[in-house]
Write a structure and sequence with these properties.
Elements: H1 3-27, H2 38-47, H3 49-83, H4 85-100, H5 103-114, H6 119-144, H7 148-156, H8 161-198, H9 207-216, H10 220-249, H11 254-260
Length: 261
Amino acid sequence: MNKLSTYFSPIIALSIIFIIWELLVNLFSIQLYILPAPTDIFLSLNDNLRELLLATLNTLKITLFAFLIATLIAIGLAIIFSLSKILEISLYPITVIFQVTPVVAIAPLIIIWVGLDNAEMAILILSVIVAFFPVLANTNLGFRSVDKNLKELFLINRASKWQTLMKLNLPYATPYILTGMKTSIGLALIGTVVAEFVAGTGSSAGLSWIIIESGNRLDIAKLFSALILLVLSGIFLFLLMSTIEYSILRRWHQSVKENES
């Protein structure tokens, strides 16, 4: 299968789905407030484009900021764990607790603690909580996967812990870190959206608030428009992280070279 078919096959499949959707809605005269046709959705998207784009930018801003914070915290913790076994044993279970606790369960607490006037800060914190664990787990795995022979070589040459970290552990763990970041950036978006839903008091200016408001007004076409922009945002973030991963690994990592060949 060539690259053109790889790119165009999903587009053709989606086009067929939209055509069938349009035909069925018109054939069965389905009401607009139940299921709008694709043409109604795109008309609504055009009519509300400015509002929807501003909401999308706000959601993306919080998502990217939360992702960067989560990545820095996760890599920092993984480095600490690699340097101190006692700290890893003590703190790693706590990070697991944060990961397995549903964000909707702790969202009301975070909102109360930071205040209803600081809805964006609450959303940011919740998104960080959701996003940081995959980077932590993958970075930790990368550090554990370092070749024992290379470790012994560094010990023989009397390398310090800092030298071993910077010149062996981090380079070796880079593919693992990037894999965790690809997962994390999607979770950051999910965390932002869920947090916006929970904080949906009108103080949130993201896409989730538009979805809530549109649903309450039975403006389902606008609701679908917001959903489309959420999907496109997720695709954009995934492609962004994939491009960064490729740019970093393409010169030296075997997995990228094998894909290219």
